[in-house]
Amino acid sequence: MEIVWSDFSETCPIIKECLETPDLCSESEETWEYVYEVLWIEIGSFVRNKLTPSFWSCFKHTQTLSKFDREGETADDLQLQYKLFTNFVNAVKGLDAYYQFVKSSLEKLDSIRKITDHSPSLAKLNELLRSSLLSQLPTNFNNVVFSFYSVSFRVFFNLHQTADQAGQDNADLEESGIPCKGCNQELEKCQCRALLQTINEVNQKLVDLELLDRLAGQSMTFLVQLRIKDHIKNTCHGIFDRSHLKALLTWLDDVVISWLMQVFHSKSLASDAMHIDDSSRTSDAIQSLKVKLTFYVYENYAISVIDQFFSIIIDFPDSIPAIEDLKICMEKINLRRQIINTLKTSLEARILHPGVNTMDILTGYVAAIKAIRYLDSSGVILETVTAPIKEYLRKRSDTVRCVVTSLTETESGPTDLSEELAKGDAAKDGGTAGNVNDELSNWENWQPDPFGLENSVQPRAVKTSRCADIISMVVDIYGSKELFMSEYRNLLADRLLTQLEFSPEKEIRNLELLKLRFGESLLHNCEVMLKDIADSKRINSHIHSDPKYVEQKQFDISSLIISAQFWPSFNKESVELPEPIANEFQKYTKSYEEYKGNRTLNWRTVTGKVCISIELGERVLDMTVAPTQAVIIYHFQTKSEWSLDDLSSLVKIPPSVLRRRMAFWQSHGIIVESQPGVYKLIEDDIPKSQKLPINEIIAEDEDNESAMASASDQREEELQVFWSYIVGMLTNLDSLPIERIHQMLKLFASNGLGVEFTQDDLKDFLQRKVRDHKLIYSGGVYQLAK
């Protein structure tokens, strides 16, 4: 106090003289006005030149503050915060010491003057002090203030944990040697309560000086927001199977708001009416701040959920609680644009690239439909977010096959699409119309589409995605049910031709479910295919029971007799059978003709499976191979070495294809290429490195190749029926652009032929004709080659 008096009296000598003059009370009013005028000039000089620089000197540790990180949680960061905390406490205490001395001096002077109301003098002193302090703010003062309140919050949070949790935590911490979370000291030497008392004293002094909000408001706001973000990250990140909103709002009320109430409400504030009024205003201000912080919690929790929404999609339906929370947040804050942008970016980065196989993309697409539709029933977000996925899937050649496979194959467990198909609750062709009628019948709960739609999102597309079920949305990728049914027919044909033991129950079930979904007309061919399988079994059984055929046969033949016009087109590959084998097929054909009368068989010799036994010295290999492989190895029993050209001319297979087929036997160590283009049978034992661990080898010809023609070949064959129309147009009109050709074909030809095609399909077809020199393309028009 002596130091304070010395500093103050040196700068303000008039106040010393006034307090030491006993007869000053008898002076006139003019004298007192002069004294007060000089006194305030000296006090102002003292505050500006002595008090304020002294206070801010505790904040000017440039080297220390340059290393300060507000979000740092390392031991060095915490140690720096406690150091700055001490600086702030010392600065406020020093400021308060001078303030209290000047305040008491002014009160004494007012008493000498016989003025009982000291509030005008105190208000003028407070205003002078605030203006001086705020006019000389140092650059990094907020870091020091932030450190003080960061420690304050940490101490408060540590002391306000429940007794059971605190006891359990302390026991664990004592065993592990981790310091106290509040004061960063050893648990046995915890200083949290002493720090809390110091913090309350400092806050009280700032309240008395009316500096708390002006000096610390910005730092406290940033601190609270930072703690809310940290709490959301620590308690909610990656946990989607339970709701978090209620717990977050409870934490906000119990911890954050309680801490703010403690900061702004001193224990001595209820001493008089003025303080009660101030306390009431402060409470109102905190309640207003609580509303803002509540919305801040909603916003940041929603952003956290949105950033993790890809994981939420993958975890659906286990992640429904997180989506429910997000729906509540969306009712408070408009986050539709952020959801759309974040989801589009996340999906494009995670699944829309060549490194992800098509089946995984489809799985993600179906999961996205389920999760986003649960979040937003309007269909706006769904249509906008999934548009890039549909566009990307259209560019993949195997998309349709993957969709059909996912719908019908369940050996490895049911897929999302197969489960949707099994539900069978969607209408057939009128599914969308039925849903629209349901929407009209439920008009009381109708909701308008949200505002702010992107230009790319058409209302009609939104309404379609809102009403359509998942399978309809997947089929809508290509916009044609016929294309999907054609692919299903190809896939079914492959399965029927490759399965050694066919179980019709599963395929019949899939077929019936697809008929419910897409109608019977599109699946009539598939019904005939399954009937062919049953008929073939019956015919095989009859022929194998024919004594005449049984006496003549050299080996068993089991045929699959198909109605060619109902099956997809086969590829063009063929092979010349050796004469003894061809004779056996002739015997089977003759027996069939006797059984069926006026019908015969045209054999497809490259499709099927052949069980063979290969004897090489003491080795015997039992294998199941494709017919082409069997024919190749058959010829090596008459000649142990063949040139590629000779064998190619014998079996009627192009050399390039034959070389690929020979690689199969090379991989099994039975044939070796002794010199370029010459293959030799290996009759010695196979080296151990090439031996296979099983006695019976089921050979998977690289050719898990489909026996059916490729989709592009089938499409070209379908479009070939239009070739005569195109030739007639160009003969009569000389040259036409593709738009006119497409329009005329749709008008005159497609209706009668029942073939649907797009302008892109037609363009590919015409370009192939250009490459075959049947058409000329020049200047944007096509004409016949001369």
Using only CA atoms, what is the Rg? 44 Å
Work out the oligomeric state of the chains in this entry.
single chain
- Report the helical percentage: 55-70%
Poorly predicted regions: 267-276, 426-436, 455-462, 690-704
What number is the mean pLDDT? 75
What is the end-to-end distance? 115 Å
Characterize the biggest β-sheet: 3 strands, mixed
Quick one: how many beta strands? 9
Q: Estimate what percentage of residues fall within beta strands.
A: under 5%
Structural classification:
mainly alpha
Strand order of the largest sheet: 1-2-6
Description:
With 786 residues, this protein is mainly alpha-helical. Among the domains are: 1-59 and 72-138; 484-595, no CATH class; 610-681, Arc Repressor Mutant, subunit A; 711-784, Winged helix-like DNA-binding domain superfamily/Winged helix DNA-binding domain (Arc Repressor Mutant, subunit A, Orthogonal Bundle). It has a three-stranded mixed sheet with strand order 1-2-6. A three-stranded antiparallel sheet has the order 3-5-4. A three-stranded antiparallel sheet has the order 7-9-8. Strand 8 (775-778) and strand 9 form a beta hairpin. Helix 3 packs antiparallel against helix 5, helix 5 (75-112) packs across helix 9 (192-208) and helix 10 (212-236) runs antiparallel to helix 11. The longest helix is centred in the first third of the chain and has 38 residues, at 75-112. The radius of gyration is 44 Å and the shape is elongated. The chain starts with a helix and ends with a strand.
